[in-house]
Amino acid sequence: MAAACVILDIGGVLEMTPETGWVQRWEERLALPPGTVHERMDDVWQAGNVGSISERTVHEQVASRLGLDAPQVEAFMADLWTEYLGAPNEELIAYVQGLRGSCRLGILSNSFVGARERETALYRFDELVEQIVYSHEIGIEKPDLRAFEAACAALAVRPESCLFIDDYAVNVEAARAAGMRAHLFEDNAGTITRIAAHLDAGPRVAGHVPLG
Q: Which InterPro entries does the protein's record reference (predicted)?
């Protein structure tokens, strides 16, 4: 019998990532109309999400499209990463740490090139779960069903044994379409209750006592 599995998103779930207003501040600083940064950079952001562009090229495109010098590019990207990385959801992370060894654990995240190195350094998600599947490394973003298939393949689990946690309803619906159980993250209490119910109903890794 397959072991029960929990797969989590990062941004908005394991990380809290409120908007910091950094883009608006840069537009004001550069005297650009609102929306200009995303308009000029949209295809670069998308390429970074699926790993078809390097960090170096991202920096070059930021410089070229926004007219920034090297120190400005570094400051611009630092602001981007500050919002992207947010702050750890310590309560949920601690709960997931307590699950290690009793079920299979993974992460499936839409991401940007450079995210693994930074999130590993800050949060050690590689020690929290067995496998991390990033969109920029597999070239596929949620809600594409292939992203969920890739996560199951990485963990060698069947989708029906998995509970997927995400803060976007479209991704929750896609996970269900891929054969998983899924939960929309709204708060820690509800999410922890849902994970516990999933594990209580499903099989465990051999040799471990089921959680109550």
A: HAD-like_sf (IPR036412), HAD-SF_hydro_IA (IPR006439), HAD_sf (IPR023214), PGP-like_dom2 (IPR023198)
Which helix H or strand E contains 23, and what residues bound it?
Answer: helix 22-29
Residue 15: enclosing H or E segment and its boundaries? strand 15-16
Instruction: Work out the widest C-alpha separation in the chain, in whole angstroms.
Output: 62
Per residue in 164-203, pLDDT (tens digit) is: 999 999 999 999 999 999 999 999 999 999 999 999 986 5
Q: Checking phi first, is residue 163 left (phi over 0); if not, alpha (psi -120 to 50) or beta?
A: beta
Taking CA 83 as the corner, what is the angle to CA 34 and CA 78, rounded to the nearest 5 degrees? 90
The H-or-E segment that residue 98 falls in is none
This prediction's pTM: 0.91
Of 35, 57, 34, the C-alpha closest to 47 is 57
**Residue 118 dihedral angles phi and psi, to the nearest 5°:** -70, -45
| DSSP secondary structure letter of residue 134 | E
Would you list the DSSP string of 32-82?
--TTHHHHHHHHHHHHHHTT-S-HHHHHHHHHHHHT--HHHHHHHHHHHHH
Tokens matching residue 124: 């050690």
* 15-16/131-134 β-pairing: unpaired
Q: Minimal CA–CA distance to 129: which of 103, 106, 155, 99?
A: 106
- Taking CB atoms within 8 Å and a gap of at least 24, the contacts of 19-24 are 19/83, 20/79, 20/82, 20/83, 22/79, 22/80, 22/82, 22/83
91-134 tens-digit pLDDT: 999 999 999 999 999 999 999 999 999 999 999 999 999 999 99
